[in-house]
Amino acid sequence: MDNKDSLAASLAIDGLTGIGITLVCIVLAWFGIQQLRLDKFIKQPKSPAGIVLQVFLSLALGYQVARFLLDYLSWSGMLKGMF
Q: For the whole model, what pTM was predicted?
């Protein structure tokens, strides 16, 4: 395996890791948002508009958490060159 194949494999693994972590964080955010009492904030939380709002909130929160985790993973990987 030459350097080009090794680089391609490394990029593929990084991409799959990013997708996996992001999807897991979005699902966890969805389950977390289900525990909120949204009836205090919106009139009909079980309506289609309320569900769309919950999906968007889950996407936004899950993506931000995943971005933090992926950045932290990247930063910690950079530190091994220091020591």
A: 0.85
